[in-house]
Fold this sequence. Notes:
- The structure is a single chain.
- The chain is of the alpha/beta class.
- It is 39% helix and 26% strand.
- It is globular and about 55 Å long.
Amino acid sequence: MTDEAxxxxxxxxxxxxxxxxxxxxxxxxxxxxxxVVIGPSxxxxxxxxxxxxRLEPIDSGTITFDGQPLAAEGRALARLRSEVGxxxxxxxxxxxxxxxxxxxxxxxxVRKEKPAVVxxxxxxxLERVGIANQAEKFPAQLSGGQQQRVAIARxxxxxxxxxxxxxxxxxxxxxxxxxxxxxxxxxxxEGMTMVVVTHEMGFARHAANRVVFMADGQLVEQAxxxxxxxxxxxxxxxxxxSKILTH
Length: 247
């Protein structure tokens, strides 16, 4: 991991009406770093994740990606979005396209790459996430865990510089969570820059370089996982951990 920051948020503020959902958030993510964002519901975690690729515009502050300020619109924004892959809670796959077509769509349509080249890459990625044998099926024929692995392959097909995950396992049945986390853990080990909003504390412990704890729109504390889980500094984090780690 190099120390060069790939994603930098400075004094980021966001309101939804009277609700101040991001309050003066400062965060930088180094190349190759895996940052896991945790905290109670409504703490601003998903908004933070969505602000990084401008799915959620911010009200003040700055966000830079790979040295460039986030573009507001147009081609520059499309370019940014192709460099920052996003995996959502819901899989957002095109129901009428096969798994392989879903993975190929971005590079062919957005990047105008040659289908034959993209097809090989897409098959390689489906192999990597363990579902190459499902390539010709349609999303409805796959389990939720398989669909989420397709969504990860689709994000990787654009060869992004970073991946954002917004609660990628929260819509899954419990027995499918592991297969998705395994893929994410292997990506983390391969050095993919990742910002992951999740409730999966095991993943935070094993795969994160750093845990960021948010509450009430504020970044309350951040530390390496071993340190954070063993010795949270803030009352809010202690309270949060006591509620989730006792069950």
